[in-house]
Write a structure and sequence with these properties.
Transposase Inhibitor Protein From Tn5, Chain A, domain 1; alpha+beta; 16 helices; 9-stranded mixed sheet; 38% helix
């Protein structure tokens, strides 16, 4: 049995020795790895620039928590796994988080859930006159920030880039604004639009489930392409997406703006007939070898009435497990640039990596926590999760390059590098952090800090 009094805790151990515990270890945190987040922020200034996307209508003389401090506390908290606003009530006297959030060593309390809820619920139209929610997020500035962080990553313009579009579902469990049942996902949900270039997040737009998968995609891509071309006017841009984005409006825009595209296209009887010869060859090979066989072909194709012009379609004619498995994509890329096989296998199939990045946001960084009452508040939460992803991606690139965690997902980085026992001693001049001697990745941690200490990127 466990013996407990105000001085010590006792219980029997597995051997001869008993286990004795006392609450006398001093100020100890399980989040010593927040130092890596602080170093990443010093290198990139991502959170600082995010904070500048807010308009603060509060009386400066009465402000206890600046927007910059709130942004750092909330973003670092999400990185460390504190997904709920109520978690910050328990963290209010954490000296380590207070130090990296900019509260100094004065012992001032961090912000609690009420302050953060007002921040997330504010809208630009109401903040100037609202009694409580007086800090408004300028969404256009946040949208621009994601593209800005991406472009500044490169010292020189890229010759070509591929931009991926995709959607996912955020399940709803209450009566949130815009609550609509989605037949495909078989749930009440939001269906956000994501735009990535490689592992760089360029857009995260929350949408209700009563819209087409491609709704709003043209406007988002037009904005992103304009911003990229302002810095890289000669870069060749290719859009890549599944059949949910195969819409004449988007393809026609790409053709008029010199943007290439490759989109999946839903199969139909006409497409299957046009690919029948290649499918016959694949079936013959399967019959001879007993192994999956595929052939590729391309042809000119136009729908009966939904497309404004004829376009190149590439077919993958695959015969597998005794049945046909055809797939089709439509593209603006010419056969001289990429033949049918290379276009499908090497270019189009690579879009699957984007799905891993979306899952990383949902499962590791709490992007799907859209439990607020309004779409505006839930979009703010999606922005926060996206900023967290951008910061963690920067940590992975600048601090962990060449290490065993260079491709680790955010959840793995949190578990192995951020959750470190640390004893904190606060004095007038400094905060001393004694990290656990038993931490197994000490050398990797030190190397990451050294790499992150390199001169920060220009934000001009």
């Amino acid at each position: 049995m466990t013996e407990c009094n105000e001085h010590e805790l006792r219980l029997e151990g597995p051997g001869k020795r008993s286990l004795v515990a006392r609450f006398d270890g001093g100020r100890i945190s399980s989040d010593g790895g927040v130092l890596l987040l602080q170093a990443t922020e010093q290198r990139t200034r991502i959170v600082e620039r995010f904070a500048r996307c807010f308009t603060d209508h509060r009386d400066a003389a009465r402000v206890k928590h600046s927007v910059a401090q709130l942004a750092r506390q909330r973003v670092f908290g999400l990185c460390l796994g504190y997904e709920d606003l109520s978690d910050h009530d328990l963290l209010r006297d954490d000296p380590l988080l207070a130090s990296v959030a900019g509260k100094g060593s004065s012992g001032a309390l961090l912000a609690g859930k009420s302050t953060f809820s007002r921040l997330e619920l504010s809208t630009g139209d109401e903040a100037a006159h609202d009694r409580y929610r007086r800090v408004a997020l300028r969404t256009d500035d946040v949208d621009s920030l994601f593209v800005e962080v991406f472009v500044e990553r490169f010292a020189e313009a890229s010759a070509s880039i591929v931009i991926d579009l995709d959607t996912t579902d955020f399940e709803l469990h209450g009566r949130q604004e815009g609550r609509v049942f989605h037949g495909y996902y078989d749930e009440y949900c939001y269906v956000p639009l994501y735009v990535f270039c490689g592992d760089h997040l360029l857009c995260a737009r929350l949408r209700t489930a009563d819209r087409d998968a491609s709704a709003g995609a043209k406007d988002e891509i037009a904005r992103i392409v304009k911003q990229i071309r302002a810095r890289w006017p000669s870069t060749r841009i290719t859009l890549r997406a599944d059949s949910g984005f195969c819409r004449d409006e988007l393809m026609s825009w790409c053709e008029s703006e010199r943007v290439d595209y490759i989109f999946g296209i839903a199969r139909n009887s006409r497409l299957i007939e046009l690919a029948s010869y290649a499918m016959g060859l694949a079936a013959t090979e399967f019959a001879a070898t007993g192994k999956a066989a595929r052939r590729f072909c391309d042809f000119e194709y136009r729908t009966v009435d939904s497309w404004s012009r004829t376009r190149r379609v590439v077919a993958k004619a695959e015969y597998i497990a005794g049945k046909e498995n055809p797939r089709f994509v439509v593209t603006s890329l010419s056969p001289e640039l990429l033949d049918a096989r290379a276009l499908y296998e090497d270019l189009y199939c690579a879009r699957g990596e984007m799905e891993n990045r979306i899952k990383e946001q949902q499962h590791d960084l709490f992007a799907g926590r859209v439990s607020a009452a309004t779409v505006v508040a839930n979009q703010a939460r999606l922005y926060l999760a996206s900023i967290v992803y951008t910061l963690m991606r920067a940590l992975r690139e600048y601090g962990l390059a060449g290490s065993e965690l260079k491709r680790a997902q955010c959840g793995t980085i949190r578990l192995r590098l951020l959750k470190i026992g640390a004893q904190i001693t606060v004095s007038v001049r400094r905060v001393r952090i004694a990290l656990s001697q038993a931490f197994p990745l000490q050398q990797l941690f030190a190397r990451a800090l050294d790499k992150l200490a390199q001169p920060r990127l220009s934000t001009a």
